[in-house]
Automatic annotation (TrEMBL):
<dbReference type="InterPro" id="IPR005545">
    <property type="entry name" value="YCII"/>
</dbReference>
<feature type="domain" description="YCII-related">
    <location>
        <begin position="30"/>
        <end position="118"/>
    </location>
</feature>
<comment type="similarity">
    <text>Belongs to the YciI family.</text>
</comment>
<protein>
    <recommendedName>
        <fullName>YCII-related domain-containing protein</fullName>
    </recommendedName>
</protein>
<dbReference type="Pfam" id="PF03795">
    <property type="entry name" value="YCII"/>
</dbReference>
<dbReference type="InterPro" id="IPR011008">
    <property type="entry name" value="Dimeric_a/b-barrel"/>
</dbReference>
């Protein structure tokens, strides 16, 4: 089964992405190790890190006119920081991989099965 793991990171996690020195190396070192383990297992099907929420917009359409809202949007501390699509045997395997994710320690990892597209 394919699942998408959505990484919800804390503001501190987003700040660590661009921090120098030991803080930045600790952040990226943990992510490199995690991504390496996923790749070594051969289960990665895609994914990307995302820029901080303040760099994005939300677009809604009400009637004929689009409404554009600048980020951040959610009324929560954690924001979507990235995602990886993996292929695993079952949800238990996906949970095991999510528990190993660096974001699980300071934010959260949401797991959603991918909806198969017929056609």
């Amino acid at each position: 089964m394919q699942v998408t793991m959505l990484f919800h990171e804390s503001p501190e996690g987003f700040a660590a992405r661009t921090a120098g020195g030991a803080e930045g190396e600790a952040f990226w070192g943990a992510w490199r190790a995690y991504a390496g383990a996923l790749n070594e297992a051969g289960i990665v099907r895609g994914g990307n890190a995302l820029m901080p929420p303040a760099t994005g917009v939300i677009v809604k359409r009400r009637g004929d006119a689009p409404q554009v809202l600048d980020g951040p949007y959610a009324e929560t501390k954690e924001q979507l920081g990235g995602y990886i699509v993996i292929e695993v045997a079952d949800m238990d395997a996906a949970i095991a991989w999510a528990a190993r994710c660096p974001a699980a320690a300071t934010g959260a990892v949401e797991i959603r099965p991918v909806l198969p597209m017929n056609g």
